[in-house]
Design goal:
alpha/beta; seven-stranded mixed sheet; 23% strand; 7 helices
Length: 220
């Protein structure tokens, strides 16, 4: 297929997938998601941001996978994406939220400088005014800013995720962890004082694999 045909096919996959997820994306959002996917594919050749090389796989395994979690963030004001890597779900969340949840601001933190350089490039090129990028270890971030939602995708075991970042979660805030197969053993190893509030199985269009959202909050 030619590049143009490839792009048309990817755009159709994105539109159909978003519709299947019940997301009403505007043309501007579709354009930004496609531009993000193109940047991810381009930078990935040099920076190894993701193990996936095939753009069609990136679309289902990364973009649609992240989009499947979007409605869980409804109402959030300040979101922290820990171990943001190539921007999943944080950049996808920012593109969606700019129109769907304009009050939301997303902070992406990663320890790898080449990844934060990529995220800053995406922020600039896509003009994402609702994004802040931090090159830091999450456990060393000062408490001056707290978040009502802290999220991660394929970042660390739940116990470490909560232990390293809970000083940044405001009272009444929650974690939303994007996981594959239900991590029952990780849930059992959660630190004292934390509980799983709910678990939501996700169905990602075009992806024949288990996906779950784990919602964690302070035990009262």
């Amino acid at each position: 297929m030619s590049n143009t045909a490839d792009q048309h096919h990817l755009t159709r996959t994105l539109k159909e997938g978003a519709a299947a997820l019940g997301l009403d994306l505007s043309e501007a959002q579709i354009d930004k998601l496609m531009a993000y996917q193109a940047l991810l594919a381009k930078w990935n050749k040099v920076y190894n941001l993701t193990a996936l090389r095939d753009p069609a796989q990136m679309m289902t395994h990364h973009l649609l996978d992240s989009l499947s979690a979007m409605t869980a963030f409804a109402g959030a004001q300040r979101v922290l994406d820990v171990g943001a890597g190539g921007g999943l779900p944080g950049i996808v969340l920012a593109i969606w939220a700019a129109e769907a949840q304009p009050q939301m601001h997303i902070t992406l933190v990663d320890t790898v400088q080449k990844k934060t350089a990529f995220l800053n490039q995406v922020k600039a090129q896509l003009q994402l005014g609702n994004v802040t990028v931090l090159h830091a270890r999450v456990e060393q971030l000062p408490i001056e800013q707290q978040y009502d939602v802290i999220t991660s995708r394929a970042f660390a075991e739940l116990k470490d995720f909560v232990t390293w970042s809970n000083h940044l979660l405001q009272q009444g805030g929650k974690y939303i962890a994007l996981k594959g197969v239900l991590p029952q053993e990780e849930i059992e190893r959660l630190p004292a004082g934390w509980k799983v509030q709910s678990i939501r199985p996700l169905q990602v269009p075009g992806l024949d694999a288990e996906r779950h959202l784990i919602f964690i909050e302070r035990a009262s």
